[in-house]
Amino acid sequence: MLRFTSGFRLRLALGGVLLLAGTATSLTQPMIAQRILNRLVRDQGINGLLLALAGAVVLGTVVSAGGYFMVESVGESLVRRVRGLLVARILVLRTAVVDEAKPGDLVSRLVADTTLLRQVTTQAVVTSIIAVIALLGSLILMGLIDYVLLAVTLTAVLVIGVSVRWAATGIGRATGKAQEAVGLMAALLDRDLAAFRTVKAAGAEKHELGLLTDAADTAWRRGLRVAGWQAASGACASLMMQTSFLAVLGVGGARVASGRLPIADLIAYLLYMFFLTQPVTTLSGAWGQLKAGGAAVERIQAVLELAVEPIALEPPRTGGRQGDAPYRVRHPAEERPEGRGAAAVAFQQVVFMYRPGLPAVLKDVTFTVPAGGLTAVVGPSGAGKTSLFALLERFYDASSGRVLVDGRDVRDWPLTELRRSIGYVEQEAAVLAGTLRENLTLGLAGVGDDQVREVIGLARLGDVVEALPGGLDGWIGHRGGTLSGGQRQRIAIGRALLRRPRLLLLDEATSALDATNEAALRDTLTAAAAATTVVVIAHRLSTVIDAHQIVVLEAGGVRAVGTHDELLRSDQTYRELATTQFLAAGAPEVLERAR
Ligand SMILES: Nc1ncnc2c1ncn2[C@@H]1O[C@H](COP(=O)(O)OP(=O)(O)OP(=O)(O)O)[C@@H](O)[C@H]1O
């Protein structure tokens, strides 16, 4: 926790000092009031004292408010820093890590655990520092009065310390588990929202509700356990304070009776014991809170330790008002590149498994893609086609062998530069909640209207712009739920083309397009292939027929490479694929050629 407070410690300390000063100023008020009363009784002037009392009231309030604000603002700054660190980390997590993560749980760590952390810093840390000072001060003054009574009090404080420590461990453990349950709830809700229509269509609302309420119940039960530990710790502290009070009374009384202690000293000592109750109660509560914060820190730390890609992503230091618009791009990534030509690709004896222990999905894959032109990759479902793209984008590293882009191993490319050279259109094309323009210019800065309009033409997005209320700046819902599969993919193609990639990877949609759009997109791909290298995982006959080279993949291995006509003649698998599995693009002559 201390690590996260670096840079804020001075402000935190200053806030603590102000709070302390505010309390001290407030403590002078009864003394001034007492004097005012005394002077009134003696019929003396009180103007000066009234002024002093008013001054003490105002000063105490202002100083306390300043201290409170400072401490709270440190809490907010701390949350901002930790959230910045977390998102900067989450955004560059390795794909394999995210494959296994629960997104909802990550969100819960970002939201709920950081909030808990804030409460702990502002409430627990500062109040306990003040309480420790008050505790030590009182104990010293009590020792000056009578060290025998101090020994009795210290025994009680020690017992309280031990029991509070024991309870705090329980609080920390129970809080960690409660936060875990909250994370599970978030993960479950995320899974339902991600597959919202599927849940509805399957009539699984009741089932999912059961799971969610189970998770909520678990969080509630664990929350109760936290409350139980807190109550036990508070009860222990209070019991010991009362016992020690009685013990001091007994021992003190005996010492007064034997003449070893003046009665006035015993009364003063007992008054100090009253003072002591406050810091002891505060500290016993704060210890538990610190442990709870520790549990939150552990969950945050666990995310910060996940494996990340070699991309330097620092949370920006500046704040600044951005208005109410969500998803405003505050730190635009980069300028749109100029035309950059085409990149050659080579796979050399590539073996790849997603995780150690899993079977290899690519087995000794070797083929080359020349710079420029259209290469189609075809093969049965599960052959490993998408995995080839994942290696090119370096979402994963090959287990052995080499993947080259422009003759350079992808592992030797700076990752951002590699990805900047590649445009990737997934089959289940991702559309982000935001405007159409934001979706197209994602990660690019300074893209002019004319350039956006150009890709709208190229990707055949005219109908989407027209139908969308607000046009180019119209809002596209969560995961593009308001769009058809084909429209989503055309947006993704537009996004990829806008980046002017040296290599365009396209996992063709399996859904059929109408004949006009089919032909138009074919033209777009042909035009793109003239300027850059295009590799398409092809599901359409029209695409393979147009391809300069076709790579046939089967069960993780390259079966054949050639043109459509060559492969029709020479390769049985290809012939079967071409005649049975490809989506034929309406035109009879295409079908005829396939036969
Ligand atoms: N993230 C992953 N973790 C583990 N295994 C995976 C992962 N993604 C894919 N696989 C497995 O790798 C194999 C190849 O998958 P891949 O998606 O590359 O096939 P594909 O040829 O693109 O299939 P399709 O045409 O159905 O999209 C499959 O057996 C799949 O189950």
What does this structure look like?
The structure is a single chain. The chain has 19 helices and 14 strands. The chain is of the alpha/beta class and 595 residues long. The protein folds into three domains: 1-91; 101-309, ABC transporter type 1, transmembrane domain (ABC transporter transmembrane region fold, Up-down Bundle), CATH 1.20.1560; 339-594, Rossmann fold (3-Layer(aba) Sandwich), CATH 3.40.50. The strands form four sheets. A six-stranded mixed beta sheet has the order 7-11-12-4-13-14, sandwiched between helices. A hairpin with a 2-residue loop joins strand 13 (549-554) and strand 14. Helix 5 (147-194) packs antiparallel against helix 7. It is elongated, with a radius of gyration of 35 Å. The model is unreliable at 319-332 (pLDDT under 50).
